[in-house]
Amino acid sequence: MARKQELIITTTTTAITTFLRLKAFRSDRGGKFNSLEFEAYCSEHGIKHFTTTAYSPQQNGVVEHQNCTVVEMARCLLKSKGIPAEFWGEAVKMVVYILNREPTRSLLGRTPYEAWHNRKPKVSHMRTFGCVAHVKRVGPGVDKLADRSTPMVFLGYEAGTKGYRVYHPVAKKLQVSRDVVFEEHRSWNWEEPGRSSKPPVTFDVEFFTVTESGTM
Question: Kind and range of the H or E element at 184?
Fold first, then answer.
């Protein structure tokens, strides 16, 4: 029941905040879409609800193709920084966030965000998923000589705010903060809690020849 009500609330909120009325809705035959509550909602608001037949993903090909894209990109995000699979939900949300701000040919070079909000998206705040994020320590309990920040892992953006979603692997806690400094080239060492891994240091080696007299 909770998921059915959530679906109705989400649909209503979207209509109110965007001043757009949903005319048609296509879905599979999942229980939340076939509930009496949702059907009554669609009927009351003049929404046409179409359903696909079982085991026929081709009937909703655009959505199925996009789902595959999201899953593949999420897998890449997790692998690129060695993030445990338990954070797949955060990776999926990040992928959707990125795709909504990426130009597409179907919208004549515009982004989905621009088509929906009628303005270009801001991207200057975007950072590398899974990188090390130093979160400012605040509060009356912070010692004057203690570190000014705590290293965590960046997992995304908090909807409706300007905050970043960060995870503390040692405390096993997810939090939201605006005061963050990122090291996008660094990854967290998940095998050793409390440590972040640094990229290998590279340097140039110059070869020289030593003569019999000892000069170079």
Answer: strand 180-188
